[in-house]
Amino acid sequence: MNRFLFVLGKNWQLSLAELDNTLKNAPQFKGRITDYSANIAIVEFEDLHTDRLYANKLMELQYILGGCQKIAEIHDFIDIQTVHFAFPLQIEKYKQVDIKRKEILKVINSSLKKVFPSIRRESLFFAVSIYPNLYDDNYYSDVLLKHFLPFLNKEIMTLLKENGAKKSLYYKYPQENIDAGNLNPIFPHHVITYGLFNRDRAEIIFGFTEEGCYIARTLTCDDPNFKKRIDEERPFKEFKSATSPKLSLIMLNFLNLFEQRERKKILDPFVGHGTILMFALIEDFQIFGSDIDETKVKNTERNISWLLNELEEEAPYMINEIIKKVDINQLSSVFNDEKFDGICTEPELGPFYKQKPYYTEVVDLIESKLNPLFKATFRESFKVLTPKGRISIIAPVIGTIDGGDVQLNVEQIANFYKFKLIPMLDLNRIVNKSNRKLQFKQGHVRAILDAKKNQIVKRKLYVFEKIDESS
């Protein structure tokens, strides 16, 4: 059974949850995560490896995932003890180091014959990317970057020449980053720019978990330039408060609508400037949206029309019937002829604070404005969703000066309006790690934060399913 390495996004918990949910619920991608770190996930598929065109399938999977940077095919594995003996924090047993490094070279040599379809008389180029178990681990900055990376570059180049390559070159990272111990592996746009999917070029990934080091070749990667262009070049945008393209895709995937997407109807009742709907359109969904702000409705219509023009597709007939000015309290009466397969939205999260507010100020905001807004959202969503339809929704967690983080009780509101919480990660499918930084607990997966350090208003993603009253 072939195994594949998935490079996770910055929010690795959310990326891992999205990946596990997709592997569990998408019939065409059935599989399981067998190992993981804060940077990679190792996946075994049930039958993908039997498909002659499995690389195309992986490209399709990469396209729909919001939290995955790269997918690579694993060619070999080195247990962590061997790596630590070959590259210890401090060398004391030189003979043991030499023996273990030769063992590693033997494994790498075998892998290179799988990485490159042809080596003899070829001019080859490769880039080594090391993904550690944790970036804040001293072993990464002091050993993997300063000793393992130079070793790999030099020895792989030598091995390729010994195997008959006419020329062998490697991608050189900035030395100042290596010396500082804060080097990032090459980004997806570098993989595309350097043509590392070509037969004579490759990104070779050395991905670490607590178990050991996986050696893999990148097969496909995210195209961040495409997402960035849509996000930044659309006619109307609001960077301070807009949902990111990657988070939009993750939210859409938690609706579990993986088949016949062209027939599935998605609603965003708080369209803002249309980010979620734009990426739902890219993912082939039928889109509907609303907002109480008429300017935002018009801007979303123009953004959707711009996107369709960029994609060289026709704009929907009477787009104003698809995107409407609606108060959330009247949602079901305005969309009374529609039943939606999923709702994906970010309601208003409160003011854009430049500095932390006081606890009482936030409590008043929640009681007077946010609670009524979220109550109306769940009440109306229940009326317009199909049986067992899901809602993927963002709620705010607001940091205060004098009372820590404050949040509204979204679960209680959802339960009252007959929605059940769907945990974002199935802990029965994940083997917890010994490192506490990598462990999951039940409370951690009921909903997952998506926030930058020191962010005052943090996004928390929840997934709820409409309770089927007929069962």
How would you explain this protein's 3D organization?
The chain contains 15 helices and 17 strands. The protein is α/β, with parallel strands linked by helices. The chain has 2 domains: 3-222, VC0802-like, CATH 3.30.2130.30; 225-466, Vaccinia Virus protein VP39 (Rossmann fold, 3-Layer(aba) Sandwich). Strands 9, 10, 11, 12, 13, 14, 15, 16 and 17 form a 9-stranded mixed beta sheet that branches. Helix 10 (275-282) links the parallel strand 9 and strand 10 (286-291). Helix 3 packs across helix 4 (94-115) and helix 4 (94-115) packs across helix 5. 41% of the residues are buried.
Can you give me a brief rundown of this structure?
Helices cover 37% and strands 24% of the residues. It contains 15 helices and 17 strands.
- Write the CATH homologous superfamily of the largest domain: Vaccinia Virus protein VP39
Q: What fraction, in percent, of the residue positions are helical?
A: 25-40%
Radius of gyration: 24 Å
Instruction: Sketch the major β-sheet.
Output: 9 strands, mixed
Shape: globular
CATH architecture of the largest domain: 3-Layer(aba) Sandwich
β-strand percent reads: 15-25%
Total domain count: 2
Total number of helices: 15
How would you describe this structure in keywords?
15 helices, 8-stranded mixed sheet, VC0802-like, Rossmann fold, 471 residues, alpha/beta
What topology does this entry show?
Blueprint (H helix, E strand, L loop, with lengths): L2 E6 L3 H14 L5 E6 L3 E6 L8 H11 L3 E12 H7 L7 H22 L7 E9 L6 H25 L4 E4 L4 H6 L7 H6 L7 E8 L3 E10 L2 H10 L11 H9 L11 E4 L6 H8 L3 E6 L2 H17 L12 E3 L5 H4 L5 E6 L13 H26 E15 L5 E3 L2 H7 L2 E3 L20 H4 L2 E3 L6 E10 L5
Parallel strand pairs: 5-6, 5-7, 9-10, 9-12, 10-11, 12-13
Antiparallel strand pairs: 1-3, 1-4, 2-3, 4-8, 7-8, 13-14, 13-17, 15-17, 16-17
